């Protein structure tokens, strides 16, 4: 996002406490190491800069961990965002974009999922974001803070430059784990659940490239800058691919055998999560460039091959 904003000629300040992220992933602009829930730091940031729009990505993101330790998620994802919004209100900053998630839908009644479908999250991670969507609606009505919630489906892939990519510790996402097997950093990929009601028994997901997510943020920011009230949009490619299909694509892209093992279901996983992204397409004029998941895997492979130890900034 920072790279794209700088390319478009914007000034950017990034706040990250580096609890999970990497300074080296921020390719320019101003970097402030600090916590989202620190009111005195927020006061200093908002009172000394003219900020048009806040894009809020900071969160803990592991569904399984959120089930084990829900308060960690409610405090960091929900509670600290209230500090951010309070500080924005005090300083008259009135445009906000939230990284929301398909996890707000829980186990959907029908697919592809439309934004108006019931939101019944099945884990605290999803609930921590659902709460924020409701808070943002209240803030719009009460304080005039206009906002857009972007419900990403499965974020994947890496920047085409090969300079920025995924480096989570621990890694829980399918594509980077499969590629770590290709790099022989892991012995095999565990397929979590082979008895789902899907064509090959494994879960279907809608993989969306990180560059396309970034493009949606640029469009959402433009919409808010034009005076729009904002909205809630799914971001996905409207196609589901199974775990087995993704592993097969990774074999093709890498030319490696990638051993697999069938494992039990992972708690909290929905069988099928596929977006209808018609609203983003029509209202934001968003059109994802990477609709072939093989290309998404290929960009991730370029990053993982060039950076087998990720950003390597924790050593
Ligand atoms: N990865 C996905 O598939 C996916 C899907 C849907 C939504 N999202 C959302 O997108 C956003 C980014 O996800 P990601 O995959 O890049 O995760 P990430 O862990 O790579 O990035 C989150 C960043 O937030 C920072 N952070 C966390 N808590 C903070 C705090 N209290 N103060 C300051 N910084 C803090 C971390 O250090 C990290 O750099 C998250 O809000 C996530 O919920 C991700
Ligand atoms: O080692 C693994 C890892 C994953 N999977 C499977 O692969 C699929 C995709 O799993 P990911 O962990 O890559 O992604 P999720 O669909 O669980 O979750 C992602 O999308 C969600 C919304 O759909 C949330 O936003 C969440 O933060 C984000 O990580 C799931 O069926 C999962 O069970 C495996 O079989 N083996």
UniProtKB/TrEMBL annotation:
<comment type="pathway">
    <text>Carbohydrate metabolism; galactose metabolism.</text>
</comment>
<dbReference type="InterPro" id="IPR036291">
    <property type="entry name" value="NAD(P)-bd_dom_sf"/>
</dbReference>
<dbReference type="InterPro" id="IPR001509">
    <property type="entry name" value="Epimerase_deHydtase"/>
</dbReference>
<comment type="similarity">
    <text>Belongs to the NAD(P)-dependent epimerase/dehydratase family.</text>
</comment>
<dbReference type="GO" id="GO:0006012">
    <property type="term" value="P:galactose metabolic process"/>
</dbReference>
<dbReference type="Pfam" id="PF01370">
    <property type="entry name" value="Epimerase"/>
</dbReference>
<dbReference type="GO" id="GO:0003978">
    <property type="term" value="F:UDP-glucose 4-epimerase activity"/>
</dbReference>
<keyword id="KW-0119">Carbohydrate metabolism</keyword>
<keyword id="KW-0413">Isomerase</keyword>
<comment type="subunit">
    <text>Homodimer.</text>
</comment>
<protein>
    <recommendedName>
        <fullName>UDP-glucose 4-epimerase</fullName>
        <ecNumber>5.1.3.2</ecNumber>
    </recommendedName>
</protein>
<feature type="domain" description="NAD-dependent epimerase/dehydratase">
    <location>
        <begin position="2"/>
        <end position="236"/>
    </location>
</feature>
<dbReference type="InterPro" id="IPR005886">
    <property type="entry name" value="UDP_G4E"/>
</dbReference>
<keyword id="KW-0520">NAD</keyword>
